[in-house]
């Protein structure tokens, strides 16, 4: 897995999603993204079947600053595998899978409330 340099170093609401990408902070990104306290990163995961411990390394690395992880699983809800749910629970992170659209909306609300939130979002067309 490769996480590229932050497109935006810090937290920002997501302005739009769809067409295979996201818009935020007057920027756009084609593909999936990982929103953590240190920034918004390109995320080389394009399907929920590719969710692995390695895919979420950056989330775990920033764990003290993350209480809730919203996992946008694409157009439809896909449950997280049990071993990932256990991994997040042991780290003290509530991982909540939902469609990408619902995750974007929830992320923006929690971010506006200054909550310790992160999001792993699969791009949708």
Describe this structure in words.
By secondary structure, the chain is α/β, with parallel strands linked by helices. The protein has one domain: Hypothetical Protein Mth938, Chain: A. The chain has helices at residues 57-61, 82-90, 100-112, and strands spanning 14-18, 21-24, 27-30, 33-36, 39-42, 68-72, 94-98, 117-121. The protein has a 5-stranded mixed sheet. The mean pLDDT is 93.
List keywords for this structure.
NDUFAF3/AAMDC, 5-stranded mixed sheet, 3-stranded antiparallel sheet, Hypothetical Protein Mth938, Chain: A, 22% helix, MTH938-like_sf, 125 residues, alpha/beta
Quick take:
InterPro entries: MTH938-like_sf (IPR036748), NDUFAF3/AAMDC (IPR007523). The chain is α/β, with parallel strands linked by helices and 125 residues long.
Assembly annotation: single chain
Number of helices: 3
Shape: globular
Summarize the helix and strand pattern as letters.
EEEEEHEHEHE
Uncertain stretches of 5 or more adjacent residues: none
- Beta-strand content: 25-35%
The CATH architecture designation is 3-Layer(aba) Sandwich
Top-tier CATH class: Alpha Beta
Number of strands: 8
Task: Report strand order across the widest sheet.
Answer: 5-4-8-6-7
User: What do we call the CATH homologous superfamily?
Assistant: MTH938-like
Structural class category = alpha/beta
User: What is the averaged pLDDT score?
Assistant: 93
How would you sum up the major sheet?
Answer: 5 strands, mixed
Q: Work out the radius of gyration.
A: 13 Å
> What count of structural domains?
1
Distance between the termini: 22 Å
CATH topology: Hypothetical Protein Mth938, Chain: A
Percentage of residues assigned to helices: 10-25%
Pfam families: DUF498
């Amino acid at each position: 897995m490769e996480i590229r340099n932050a497109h935006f170093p810090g937290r920002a609401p997501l302005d739009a999603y769809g067409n295979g990408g996201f818009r935020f902070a007057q920027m756009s990104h084609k593909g999936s993204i990982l929103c953590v306290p240190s920034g918004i990163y390109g995320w080389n995961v394009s399907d929920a079947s590719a969710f692995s411990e390695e895919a979420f390394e950056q989330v775990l690395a920033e764990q003290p600053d993350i209480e809730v992880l919203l996992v946008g699983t694409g157009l439809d809800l896909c449950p997280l595998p049990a071993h990932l749910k256990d991994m997040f629970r042991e780290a003290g992170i509530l991982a909540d899978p939902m469609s990408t659209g619902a995750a974007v909306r929830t992320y923006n609300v929690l971010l506006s409330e200054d909550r310790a939130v992160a999001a792993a979002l699969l791009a949708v067309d």
